[in-house]
Write a structure and sequence with these properties.
The structure is a homodimer. By secondary structure, chain A is α+β, with helices and mostly antiparallel strands. Chain A has helices at residues 21-32, 63-72, 85-94, 101-107, 110-119, 133-143, 167-176, 232-249, 283-286, 291-300, 326-329, and strands at 13-17, 36-41, 54-57, 75-78, 127-130, 147-151, 161-164, 182-186, 190-200, 206-208, 213-217, 220-226, 253-262, 267-273, 311-319, 334-337, 348-357. The first copy, chain A, contains eleven helices and 17 strands. In chain A, the strands form three sheets. In chain A, strands 9, 10, 11, 12, 13, 14, 15, 16 and 17 form a nine-stranded antiparallel beta sheet that branches. In chain A, 51% of the residues are buried.
């Protein structure tokens, strides 16, 4: 496993696996710092391919291409966590990979992730491992009520999930997931959702952004509002949760912790994303150093930037055909479009951040 | 001459002639809006080549390459004004070129530029056309004191300029410039320098940024400070000057007007740059819409963005070997590095903007 023994200097190359909007915004942030980026993506068309001449289109398990990619790069990162573990281990032996494989192995799997969070003394929704319809029935009884069956791996934006209201539904869902290892998660009666985006460096320094309140629609983030309904104490607790998680994982880079804020005011960890996060896009305008620049700084061994928020912000996603109103959207707020060709249903096409300045 | 009959939609291609830091920051701003960029540069290595896969390295008068470039682009702009007029006319017949050739023809030549500014009733330093050593002597007598001989074309950062304190020195300078058409400009005893960066759209809408005070060292911009020492009235007057110039030129895009602020409080126009400008870099952090995004919006037919300044700012250039302190520079303020390989003496390698937030 390679480690970074000195900062990547200006002119160095950041390798980014995944060429979606997160990779694109990471590349734009790296460019500000005079760093080059090489994007590795498994399809020929990718939003991030539009913002750098260094790009590789190949499957995520193509060893020869991964090797060529590693040769070009000074440090390697990724924009999404659902990558083949083998490929990541292979890359990590060739060049420094940040965040590291050990952290990713825990967070790629909902069961090990939740067990890890519990081991830190943090609260999560009730959950149980489920590998068969029989286990699903037992888990349903154990959790004691309706919940959600989720595949342990490769879920995002509500994919790989099924709400189950009865024991029979739980068993049926397992059949639909074709025996993929799952968990059953009990429903949480929360007041609202929130998240905290934070960065940790190899030297242990830590910087957290103010946690926004998040509004979801159809399992997709609609809007992040900062400050939201979190109290000052909840704000601090959220940051402390992120720090506890990042420290224990010996994490390097930006991570996001999605939270449920319960009606009694307590915070539950929903899930952890080992990457920059949609609910942190507002940091581009409202902070001196955005989550994207912060991630680049952390993985490249640079000093972390200042996460202080200098304005209140509302970030709203532009989903599917909403992007057709781009000319109107350009009139209000800071518009970001991701360069995607087809405005498919549910696809994130861009976002708008509106600042409410402190006057 | 082609004109833009509808806005360039997301996914469209902005052609940028010149691949320096201004082209690079224009490309990064275009990417935010979901627009692609194609960079045309006359050398193989260019800062802007690092931030887009669409790039052409060819001489600025290579008709075949210019034609290929025009075919790719929906609208064409440039990052510097010293381009062959023939090439620009050629491109303007193929695709919309913004700012247009008519404006550029006036501003490429210091003599027509100053005559134009005077024709608007605006003040400039005393100046006279000089084409020979004999004319230089006569001009020196007319202006009545020491001044600067400047070539009418292709000057920047103090290049193509000679201070002349005596009649004989004026004549000698003309010999040094090998008969290139020049002007003699009288010295102005100013209190300080300032500039105003503004944008105009094809529909006549106009947006000006607050004018910073500028500090030069060795003919190179060292620092822009906003607000500087300009009074509220001077702030407004500077914007009005930019508007008068942009309107009369029927200008489309961002322009910068460099100003002398005299001891009696009056403003003199020093020169006009038909492009984004070093003294506008602070707008990236301190305004909702930066000068780079504003230029892209204007030339692409999009609505102009909000130029309101939400923070006080100091922008400082990183010149030559100063860039070696990049790790320290990364600790304070928003760091921008341009991806240039050799830190030559006097070369602009990056800049840092420090905000003083309104609290």
């Amino acid at each position: 496993m390679k480690t970074l023994d000195k900062p990547v200097p200006p002119g160095g190359v950041i390798g980014i696996i995944g060429g979606g909007q997160l990779g694109r915004m990471l590349a734009l942030a790296a460019a500000r710092l005079g760093l080059k980026t090489c994007i590795y993506n498994d399809e020929n068309h990718a939003p991030a391919f539009q913002v750098t001449p260094m790009q590789i289109a190949a499957p995520y398990d193509d060893r020869a291409m991964l090797q060529g990619f590693a040769e070009i790069c000074d440090v390697i990162t990724y924009e999404f966590e659902n990558l083949p573990a083998d490929s990541l281990s292979y890359l990590a032996d060739l060049k420094p990979l940040q965040p590291g494989v050990a952290a990713l192995e825990i967070l790629q799997d909902r069961y090990t992730e939740k067990s890890f969070v519990e081991s830190l003394g943090l609260r999560v929704a009730p959950f149980a491992q489920v590998n068969s319809d029989t286990q699903a029935r037992a888990a349903f009884e154990k959790i004691g009520g309706p919940g959600i069956i989720k595949t342990r791996r490769f879920g995002y934006d509500g994919k790989g999930q099924a709400k189950v209201a009865t024991v029979d539904a739980a068993a049926t869902a397992m059949t639909a997931f074709k025996g993929a290892p799952c968990i059953l998660e009990g429903f949480v009666d929360f007041a609202f959702e929130a998240s905290v985006v934070a960065a940790r460096s190899a030297d242990g320094s830590f910087a957290a952004y103010d946690p926004p309140e998040n509004i979801h629609e159809n399992h997709i983030l609609r809007r992040s509002i900062v400050p939201g309904r979190l109290t000052r104490a909840q704000n601090d607790e959220a940051k402390a949760i992120a720090k506890a998680i990042a420290d224990r994982l010996n994490y390097v880079g930006v991570l996001a912790v999605e939270l449920f804020v319960l009606k009694d005011g307590s915070l539950l960890v929903n899930e952890i994303a080992p990457r920059v996060h949609n609910s942190g896009h507002w940091t581009i305008e409202a902070c001196a150093c955005s989550q994207f620049e912060q991630h680049v700084r952390a993985i490249a061994g640079w000093p972390l930037g200042d996460p202080t928020r200098h304005a209140d912000a509302v970030m709203e996603n532009i989903i599917g055909a909403e992007v057709n109103a781009w000319e109107d959207l350009a009139r209000g707020g800071a518009l970001h479009l991701y360069g995607k060709k087809d405005a498919k249903l549910g696809r994130k096409m861009g976002h708008v951040t509106r600042l409410r300045l402190k006057s």
